[in-house]
Amino acid sequence: xxxxxxxxxxxxxxxxxxxxxxxxxxxxxxxxxxxxxxxxxxxxxxxxxxxxxxxxxxxxxxxxxxxxxxxxxxxxxxxxxxxxxxxxxxxxxxxxxxxxxxxxxxxxxxxxxxxxxxxxxxxxxxxxxxxxxxxxxxxxxxxxxxxxxxxxxxxxxxxxxxxxxxxxxxxxxxxxxxxxxxxxxxxxxxxxxxxx
Length: 196
Hints:
Keywords: Chaperone, Coiled coil, Cytoplasm, Stress response. The structure is a single chain. The protein is an alpha+beta fold. The chain is built from two helices and six strands. It has helices at residues 19-105, 112-130; strands spanning 133-136, 148-156, 165-170, 172-175, 178-181, 183-190. It has a three-stranded antiparallel β-sheet. It has a three-stranded mixed β-sheet with strand order 2-6-3, with no helix packed on it. Helix 1 (19-105) packs antiparallel against helix 2 (112-130). It starts with 18 loop residues before the first helix and ends in a 6-residue tail after the last strand.
């Protein structure tokens, strides 16, 4: 024994002759372990994808809520501006009414003073209209309590004129869709003529 292995002896470090078959059977637990690991990673990946989708939807909902809030704030601000504009317009309209009364008293007056009052009235009315204020036309139309106040009544023998506005005592005005000052009107009331 010289320490060298003989050719007919199989060293312990070398695998036996059927090592290929045994090696494949030992790889099988590793492959099933890898398959398990892959399945676990796929499950985690799917869970992560679901979580990302949930977060993306939550972000979209939050963004949508933020946009709706901004729009609501803008609408509220515009409404408040319209209310204030209506308040200012009310004061301006009262001044126009007073000028109308002064002009009605001097209807035929052609003096420079009356002409100046007419010019001031027209200027104030033009400024009011430039802010979006419009006069409500009611004469000859059916009476609508949403835009006018009935302050007087006139009897009419014509049935078609029943509940129609026949005269305007004070003009009414609106700003956009909101009536800032209702008109004061005289409304016709039908009464059948007396039979003789």
